[in-house]
Specification:
Layout (H helix, E strand, L loop, with lengths): L13 H4 L1 H9 L1 H9 L4 H30 L8 H38 L7 H32 L26
Helix pairs in contact: 2-4, 3-4, 3-6, 4-5, 5-6
Length: about 180
Amino acid sequence: MFTPPPLLPWNALHVAVIHFPIVLLMIAIVPALMALVWRRFAGPLSTFALALLIAGTVSAFVATATGEAAQEIVPSTIPAAADEVLEDHEQLGELCRNVFLGVSLAYAALAVVRWRFGEKLPRWAFPAAGAIIALPHAAGILMLANTAHLGGRLVHEFGLLAPINGPNAPPNATPRVRTEEP
C-alpha cells in the first residue's frame, strides 16, 4: 500500500529543497541563450527562461531559510575546519540568492520592455541586453556550483546530517557528527 513520506521539520527541509534552486537556476541560462540565437522563438524562450529564474530564485530563498534553520541544530562539537566550511557555505549561499534575485529582476525588466516597447527598439537591443544579463547569470552559476560543493563537503567529508525524522526520532536517526579532525 502507498504510504506518503513523513513531513520533514523546517530545520531538516534544507536537504529536500536545496536541489530545486541548483537545477532551475543552472538550466535557466540555456533558454535565455537560445533566445539570443533563435530570434523567431525569442519570446517563448525568454518567457521560459524567466519562469525558471523566478522559480529558482524563490526556491533559493526557501533553501537559505531552511539552511539557516538547519545550522541552528548543528552541534557545537564540530571541527574548526567544518565550521569554516559551514560559514563559507552559508555566506556563498546568501550571495547566490541575492545575485539571482538581481538577475531575475533584470530579466523580468527586459521582458516588460520587450512586451511594452518591442517594435520601437532596434533589433540589436534585446540580444545585447540578454547577453549583458547572461554575464552575471553565468557568474551566479559558478558561485552556485561552489556553494553546492561546500554543502557536499559538509555532508560527505564532515558527516553533518539533518535530522530528517524529526525531533522524536530514535537515537540512531539524530545528526551524525565526526568530532575528530580529518
